Amino acid sequence: MCERSDRVVEMLLKIAGTAFLVIGGVGIIIPLIPTTPFLLLAAVCYARSSERWYNWLLHNRWFGSYVRNWREGKGIPMRTKILSVMFLIMTIGYSAAFVVPFVIGKVALVLIAVCVSVHILSFPTLEPDAKF
Fold it and tell me: What is the pLDDT of residues 92-123, one digit of tens each?
């Protein structure tokens, strides 16, 4: 029975990884969607579910450089950082202003946005002339 649950978890991780990969791929085309965080999530899902899929992602000509640059400590491009923080502020700002009716909820959302923004901006920045 344990083997069956392992297979289910493996399949769910592959599905989640593929969903993150698709969103990250869309982020390459649409500048409002950050690419790197979604590709990193895909890499984590694939690394925990399939060595073959993880290696495919690392060596993919469109997505591999994002994950390899992160793994090698080169960081995230400044553009990705800025877009991620902007997208975060817009979505959480909208929720805090128009969706959440309680003051404590609004304050919590703003604190989350500030903390996540600081976290994103604290990552190393990929130098412009680094291979990307």
Answer: 999 999 999 999 999 999 999 999 899 889 98
Residue with tokens 């805090």: 96
- Please state whether beta strands 125-126 and 76-77 pair in parallel, antiparallel, or not at all (unpaired): parallel
Nearest to 23 by CA among 39, 7, 9: 39
State how far the Cα of 110 lies from the Cα of 14, in Å rounded to an integer.
Answer: 33
29-55 pLDDT per residue, tens: 876 677 888 999 999 999 999 999 999
3-class DSSP state of 131: coil
The rounded distance, in Å, linking the Cα atoms of 74 and 126 is: 5
Q: Which residues contact 73 (CB under 8 A, 6 or more apart)?
A: 124
Structure-token pair, residue 128: 């412009």
CA–CA dist 107, 80 (Å, integer): 26
